[in-house]
Specification:
Elements lengths: L7 H13 L22 E5 L2 E4 L4 E4 L14 H13 L10 H12 L5 E5 L2 H16 L3 E5 L23 E3 L5 H10 L4 E6 L17 H12 L2 E6 L10 H6 L5 E4 L10 E5 L1 H4 L16 H16 L2 H23 L4 E3 L6 E3 L7 H15 L2 E2 L14 H16 L6
Parallel strand pairs: 3-13, 5-6, 5-7, 7-8, 8-9
Antiparallel strand pairs: 1-2, 2-3, 4-10, 9-10, 11-12
Amino acid sequence: MTEKLKLRKSFEMFEEAQRLVPGGVAGIRRPYNFVPGEYPIFFDSAKGSHVIDVDGNEYIDYLCAYGPIIIGYGEDEIDDAVYRQIKDKGFCFSLTQPIQNKLIQKLTEVVPCCEMAAIVKTGSDATTIAIRVARGYTGKTKVARCGYHGWHDWCVEVKGGIPNKFYEDIIEFHYNDLDLLEEIVKKNAADMAAIIITPVGHPLAHEVEMPKLGYLEGVRKLADEYGVVLIFDEIRSGFRCSIGGAQKYFGVTPDLATIGKAMANGYSISALVGKREIMSVLADKVFLSSTFFPNSDAQIAAIKTIEILERDHILDAIYEKGMYFAKAVEKVVADSGMPVNFSGAPWMPFITFPKDETGLYKKLRNEFYTQLIRRKVFLQPYHHGYICYRHSQQDLDYTINAIKESLNELKPIA
């Protein structure tokens, strides 16, 4: 049995934080989203594929800051470019710096649907302005949605503090169920503004799904048939499935797309990109403004990140690492004889335990992730992980063995 981690400083800091911050830390980073008492709560530093917590424990990190770390933590080439911008020119002004044009020009070159773009800061910013643009363009109201799209009123899953009227025109559908989506669109065709979907399915705490043969094409056809704006939420899949995102990889082009996370390797930036005719409503019909949206530090980081992704064939390498990891873990899972699933290859690895009537899956999940974190592998029980470029062969092999050992520890419970 692997010993429990020493986490005294993390727990002390969390106790202090709860007096200062509601919940101690923000949302998905709270201890109940991991295994309470077993996972650290505060990180101190990171480099490459490893993170170090405030107690000095070092982990191989597969959560990658929930997705932004596509190359690795502390990439000197990216950070140095940002430092130069801050030192030599500054980054926050009353007017826009020229770097905006350079970045958006690059986006038009690599993202299939991008003819124009609006730079914002977070995924929630991008998905929310996407819905506003679709409604402004079509003059319609209803939206069919599939996936996690952020914390704003129209889409957040926890409805506390939100009047029903703010989301009463949002209709949810299930990924890979084209018949259900067709039924929704037909029923609401007169007032259907948009379909927004994550092109790779990643529902919270459930297996990651790839599109069934013809599914995304079918969604595209429905949108065309009924005059609905098709939005791909590529906050996670953009600059990961390929430079052009899942739309490029799967060969289906939406009208609008949201991108972010991996685009700047950790710097805060996202964008709504799309067809000129639709995006043009932002010029005068639909309002978008923020003090910090035009800041150039993250735009510089994005340009440098994209340059490195292309120059060093980063995503090809990540694909190979991800497929190697997936093949090995799938064998470990099969050999274990445990009720456990592996999904998300090659980009978003996730180990899940299918529900059963007795609730055994909860015990298995908690014990598995307890054993894994004690072996210094940082993954999340309710959220898929990521493969980054700096994950070494040694990292992958160590993790594969740690997964094997952790599954073996479940046999007395199962």
